[in-house]
Amino acid sequence: MKFLEWLFLTIAPCDAAEPWQLGFQDAATPMMQGIIDLHHDIFFFLILILVFVLWILVRTLWHFHYKKNPIPQRIVHGTTIEILWTIFPSIILMFIAIPSFALLYSMDEVVVDPAITIKAIGHQWYRTYEYSDYNSSDEQSLTFDSYTIPEDDPELGQSRLLEVDNRVVVPAKTHLRIIVTPADVPHSWAVPSLGVKCDAVPGRLNQTSISVQREGVYYGQCSEICGTNHAFMPIVVEAVDRKDYADRVSNQLSGEA
């Protein structure tokens, strides 16, 4: 069973960027699915406008060619067309604005009572994670550092410069709160498949909420230029079922006790 789990988590396709990829990574949260849907809706209007403008340009070049109209007409005003090109773009912008505002508000919404709170502390150039819900007395009992695996030391199935020695393990289909802060310079906690990009500003605590809808391994990177080794501090989030998550936490707590 352990071998099958290892095979699934290392060799099976993961949520990471692919060579020559143009589209989005597969969505693993409702927020990311909303971002993808909004992109597709806006792209639909973009294609319509592009085709319409190209049709007007081609029609204009064809009908107003100097051989067909040696003496061009002088048109300086057209009330109807001016009304149309004001009303139709306004309607299109309304169709774009309403879902985009709804998505923005839902992205800013923070879960009032999350099941788990994880604090991600950015360093040059690694991260420290604290599971704030597992404290023993006054001491943090579930804290670990996460370093990137060097590019000359990956195992079979691991992505180059995307794998870390300690993954962030979370339960699937559970409301999570991520608190992000740096210990030195500005960093960022960004995982594309989860639809998360939260900046870590020195002296401040930023928070975001996620709910991973399926089990899997999700890769991200720091999206702030934090120094020379900026590209060498990736993020790996592993979503597992709740029983597996409880077992891992219990084993880690007992191992540190």
Main traits of this protein?
257 residues; Immunoglobulin-like; 2 domains; three-stranded mixed sheet; 34% helix; 23% strand; signal; oxidoreductase activity; CcO_II_C
Describe the structure.
By secondary structure, the chain is α+β, with helices and mostly antiparallel strands. The chain has 2 domains: 28-106, Helix Hairpins, CATH 1.10.287; 114-252, Immunoglobulin-like (Sandwich). The protein is 34% helix and 23% strand. It is built from 4 helices and 12 strands. The protein has a 5-stranded mixed sheet, with no helix packed on it. Strands 6-12-11 form a 3-stranded mixed sheet, with helices on one face. β8 and β9 (196-200) form a beta hairpin. α2 (30-63) packs antiparallel against α3. Mean pLDDT is 83; it is low at 1-13.
Question: pLDDT below 50 for ≥5 consecutive residues: which ranges?
Answer: 1-13
CATH topology name of the largest domain: Immunoglobulin-like
Total E-strand runs: 12
Mean pLDDT: 83
| Strand arrangement across the biggest beta sheet | 5-2-1-7-10
Task: Describe the sheet with the most strands.
Answer: 5 strands, mixed
What CATH architecture label of the largest domain applies? Sandwich
The CATH fourth-level homologous superfamily of the largest domain = Cupredoxins -  blue copper proteins
CATH class of the largest domain: Mainly Beta
Number of domains: 2
Distance between the termini: 27 Å
Order of helices and strands: HHHEEEEEEEEEEEEH
